[in-house]
């Protein structure tokens, strides 16, 4: 018991440490960015294929637009295609993109098993492939948030908020998407050491599209199944659009004692976190626009002959009830 | 059979031909003929015009590889739209009460899910192919029973079946992506001779076979007769219900085939098959303008599928937002529907 408490405290300290580390890294990155602008990076005369799984979420829209702007800023020509969350369209666009023989292709998100054969074909056609948030062996460099850190930070915040015991409801519909899988695995890793924390079975499946309405419906059903207060302590999802629906469902049912957790830093969810009466407890905010810019700068570096690491990590910022204002300012929201 | 053989073409097909050979026939028929010619010629002219513009302006457009890509990319929608075309031919082309199969896209999704699940469970390609085609055929059989035995309007019957099928897919896959890979699937999604994807050959071969059956055999003529003049067909002793049921079975099979193509193209079964429904319906309806007599035909549907495919491809090559494609598509549909409605009204007047 004492051990449990002590380890909980340690974890909480650890959490603070990682938050500090994140801020420090973030500042470091900002400095790096100004330096990059003076680096003499250029994409002059280069055609860069930019393919995204969709632009219907804050995260991918920001990253997508930032990529296009960065290519233009460095003097290149972006060929940008948006698959609107349709896998068939995504594959067709990649196929056509390969036929266009651009100087590089940057793939933003997408289910690995669907896109990987086509990233391989691009590589075989001697087109360098870069990715954002896709861990593919066919990509030269993957720009991503540190999803292990994100998953761990979110899980520790959740476990410490609920005092290390209680039932948590989990949305796990996108285990096929690498970042979601990592975050989920980290949750499981943390929960493993808190025997009084139980993940409610069966896990829920979040869906695209109609994510918010669907999460609302599913959570409403769960609340009906667990009517006593305290029978559910928290709701976790690997991104924050299901969190949005879940939070609305909790508010509608008057079950605001349950806390919700998610990832991505969508402005509407950060607003909920900022509202002291809202059940939204924490949202780990990635820096999508920064991810997009970093990916494009990596392309420029590679084309200039530099060797790149396998992955470039852009720090994420955990926003909770205490620091949400600060995080929002950092992201340039609100 | 021998008795009705000369009768059917006369009722279903030769009326138009007769109109065409009577020169200078005054009145609505002449106007209709002119309008038909303009619409049909206009559609083909637009298609050719679009191809020419893209060939001149879009780099890489006029390469064998790119044209092959478009053919391959159109394969799944094309097979589904051809299945739908057969149902429309047999059920009549009235959009509300005529033949339609709204379950096709969901059918493809479930068939693909069955294929991928069987493959993941360690079964070979043979079992998985049989599973996918069997699934498609079973869905077709349910549609056929609902329409011919229970007498439900196809629009409603297939809408209901669509929901059941989509639900089954959710149950089977839990709304997740089920990856699948095998030598057969890789071969299907690979490039074939002359750098043209295998899927392109599949689409062309499939169209050729179905078009030959529907447009050049007595069976096909009867199919048109059943759809356009059901009373006359019945009077001539044609088993109208069997033809309609057969059309749903065929479209079900097309759904299963499209499912297999989709598994190879997307390296597994993915969510969101339902998104295909409207594009497929649009393709089949648009196909009408690419036929000589403004009726649904297999080749017309193929042209329509390729037209949409080339538009999307050309827009991407020109670096124009693909959102414009649906606008162009919608505009064309509006044109087709209003033109055919106007023509029909003239004929009745």
From TrEMBL, chain A:
* Protein localization: Cell envelope
Q: Which InterPro entries match?
A: Peripla_BP_I, SBP_2_dom, TAT_signal, TAT_signal_bac_arc
Q: Which UniProt keywords apply?
A: Signal
Pfam families, per the entry? Peripla_BP_4
* Protein's UniProt keywords contain Signal: yes
Report whether Repeat shows up as a keyword of the record: no
In terms of superkingdom, the source organism counts as Bacteria
Q: Which residues form the Periplasmic binding protein domain?
A: 48-306
The UniProt family comment states:
Belongs to the bacterial solute-binding protein 2 family.
Q: What is this protein called?
A: ABC transporter substrate-binding protein
TrEMBL record, chain B:
Where does it live in the cell?
Cell membrane
Keywords recorded for this protein, A-Z: Cell inner membrane, Cell membrane, Membrane, Transmembrane, Transmembrane helix, Transport
**TM ranges:** 42-64, 70-90, 102-121, 127-146, 153-174, 194-214, 243-266, 272-290, 297-318, 324-344
Membrane topology annotation: Multi-pass membrane protein
Domain of life from the UniProt record: Bacteria
Which InterPro entries does this one have? ABC_transp_permease
The protein's matches in PANTHER family, at most eight in alphabetical order, are given as:
ABC TRANSPORTER PERMEASE PROTEIN YPHD-RELATED (PTHR32196:SF21), ABC TRANSPORTER PERMEASE PROTEIN YPHD-RELATED-RELATED (PTHR32196)
| Name of the protein this chain belongs to | Ribose ABC transporter permease
Q: Which organism is it from?
A: Shinella yambaruensis
